Amino acid sequence: MRRTILVSSFRGYAIVILVLGLLSPLLIFGGLRPVIRSLALEDLATTTYAVRSALSESILSGDMERTDSLARSLQAETGARITVIAPDGRVLVDTDADPLAMESHRTRTEVIAALESGEGTAIRNSATLGTAMLYAAVTLKQGDTVLAVVRSSVPFRHLDSIVGGIASRMALLAAIAVALSALIAWIFSRSLAVPVRRLADGLAWMQAGDYGVRAEPSRIRELDDLAKGFNNAAERTGGLISDLSERTSQFEAILDSSSGPLAVLDRQGRFVFANDAFRALGASDDLSGRDYREVIASSEIQSLLRKALEAPGSGQDRVSKDGRTWAASWTVVAGHEQVVLGMADITDAVNLAAVKRDFAVNVAHELRTPLTAIKGFAETLSEHADDEERKYLDIILRNAERLISLVRDVQALAEMERPGYELEAEEVDLRALLGPVIELFRPAAKEKGLELALEPGSSVLVSGDPYRLEQLAINLLDNAIKYTDKGSVRLSVSEDEGQALLEVSDTGQGIPEADIPRLCERFYVVDRSRSRHLGGTGLGLAIVKHIVMLHSGALGIRSEVGKGSTFFVRFPLFTGPSPS
Ligand code: ADP
């Protein structure tokens, strides 16, 4: 059972006080009793000497009647029974009994002692009176001859009443001492218990959210330290909590006023927080603590939340709802127990991108026919032109070709970026696909004196769109030959770590490390004049990147300036026909 500190500490004191209160009278009384007895006997002996003096004359004269009456008056004064005994044990006088009826007292302990040494005392039962008595006997001598033994005796109850009186006084004193000690112990225990109780109450208040409580100073040093520590802790915690709640409300205000929908859910799908913008997506007003499946009406938002809760870590997705498009991203926080989901309205950006794409496609489409015509007429004209004219016609031809490539690349990109664009995927043998592609570049390689080779190996099957894969290989090979002046361009196809690996390596000029991360951006070129001179559009690698992404692959670039570059692409291997 749990006890209070007051009860615990007082209980200890109370046990000690009670034990001492009970034991000390017993011990003192036990030690006092024999002392009182011997004092009483001594006192009785002194009385007996006085009695002997008073009786000696009448005893010496042998007048027993007078002795008897003297003895009785002495008894009246002293309260003691007086007996005069002859040396042979005969009782001559006795104030309490008839001497003639009394037996010989020769064998009484005090009489024997008195006859031997002149004085004897005893405590024993009186055979004559039948009660416990104290006895003191002294001899009355004439010269060396003992004439009589004078004896005084008092009942033992006298002694008992004296002892009883002392005992009851001692018991009273002990009771007062116990009561006083208990009172002091109680006050002392309370002086310890009350501050501790107050501290415990203060802690309970703090737990209930009241940080204004303060402990009073104590005169006990340790308790005072504890009170100061408590006050410090309460002040600091109070400060921290108010800081925290201020920040939390600031934070919530910021989140509420932020235009993008934002929600925090626990792993079980219950809302921890949702801002106004999120609630405006068609959720009921109070989301806190409620399951998203119960409070979110929109099936699009429901499936977005399901995806966010199921996906480990972070992720992103797009949602279209009521004619608007949202980009959503989520991340798992707070020890993987909560998911924070933010959304941004990208409708305008998506619409703008669509307008731009349509515009590019339309412009490209419109440009294609006139450009082909320009190119055709320039070729026809150059057949009949003189050298001077051919120089200008070549410039027209080169630029027309450049424009045609640009139009082609813009169209390719726009097509792949169209929403809902899907690959026409089938089982493709990469090695077989590369054979004819390589042949396309054979003349250009030969013209530059470059070695062009496909490393031998077995066929590698992937699931892909052969037209797009061809486009990818053409772009990589075109670059490799364009940016290599001497040495070789090599292709290899292999299986590596359960994936298909296509590599295009050259011994060309290489690419500065700082440019590598940006190579796949549209129109990003390392050396603009060289690229332009070589008929580059700056879109080739952007197209490659897109094709790789559509095939769930990964593109990597290794390059060293002056030594050459390697572009490598990893694709998932073909695993069987897709269940369509
Ligand atoms: P471009 O039409 O200009 O070749 P790409 O998108 O195909 O555009 O390539 C972007 C840039 O990357 C090029 O301008 C060139 O600077 C660099 N590059 C691409 N491939 C290679 C390569 N094999 N060697 C060196 N530089 C390359």
List the helices and strands and how they pair.
Blueprint: H1 5-60, H2 64-78, E1 81-85, E2 91-94, H3 109-117, E3 119-125, E4 132-142, E5 145-155, H4 156-207, H5 221-257, E6 262-266, E7 271-274, H6 276-279, H7 292-295, H8 299-310, E8 315-321, E9 324-333, E10 338-345, H9 347-384, H10 387-417, E11 426-429, H11 430-448, E12 451-454, E13 461-464, H12 466-482, E14 488-496, E15 499-506, H13 528-533, H14 540-550, E16 554-560, E17 564-572
This protein binds adenosine-5'-diphosphate.
Please sum up the structure shown.
The protein has 580 residues and is α+β, with helices and mostly antiparallel strands.
Features:
Beta-Lactamase; five-stranded antiparallel β-sheet; 14 helices; 580 residues; 54% helix; binds adenosine-5'-diphosphate
Describe the structure.
With 580 residues, this protein is an alpha+beta fold. The chain has 5 domains: 158 residues, Beta-Lactamase, CATH 3.30.450; 45 residues; 86 residues, PAS domain (Beta-Lactamase, 2-Layer Sandwich), CATH 3.30.450.20; 68 residues; 147 residues, Heat Shock Protein 90 (2-Layer Sandwich), CATH 3.30.565.10. Helix content is 54%, strand content 20%. The chain has a 5-stranded antiparallel β-sheet. The chain has a 5-stranded antiparallel β-sheet with strand order 7-6-10-9-8, with helices on both faces. A 5-stranded mixed β-sheet has the order 12-14-15-17-16. A hairpin with a 2-residue loop joins strand 8 and strand 9. The longest helix is centred in the first third of the chain and has 56 residues.
